[in-house]
């Protein structure tokens, strides 16, 4: 896990009450103790990380959508080429078959 920059939040910043399960609070308290920071900083950094990953996920999904569209275009082009090859093969077989009869 890469080390994150610790964000300092001023005491007069907007406050938000949060209800969470006891075991979750304990996990945040342990992380805060281990990183020598406040639980608030742990929560804020966690939320920022979540938002960053959410944005990254949106970009990845858009990339996957573009790749799929490109793949569908290439598949359609390949199908057209296969149809052309099949037509040319049929013409060749008809030509060769017609000359063999003569």
TrEMBL record:
The keyword Membrane does not apply. One of its GO terms (biological process) is regulation of DNA-templated transcription. This is Arc family DNA-binding protein. Keywords: Coiled coil, DNA-binding. Residues 11-44 form the Arc-like DNA binding domain. InterPro entries: Arc_DNA-bd_dom, Arc_rbn_hlx_hlx, Ribbon_hlx_hlx. Pfam families: Arc. It comes from the Bacteria.
């Amino acid at each position: 896990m890469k080390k994150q920059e610790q964000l300092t939040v001023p005491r007069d910043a907007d406050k938000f009450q949060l209800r969470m399960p006891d075991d979750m609070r304990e996990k945040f308290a342990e992380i805060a103790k281990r990183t020598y920071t406040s639980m608030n900083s742990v929560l804020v950094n966690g939320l920022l990380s979540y938002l960053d990953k959410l944005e990254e996920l949106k970009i990845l999904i858009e990339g996957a959508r573009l790749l799929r569209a490109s793949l569908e275009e290439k598949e359609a082009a390949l199908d057209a080429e296969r149809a052309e090859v099949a037509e040319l093969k049929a013409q060749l077989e008809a030509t060769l078959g017609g000359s063999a009869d003569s």
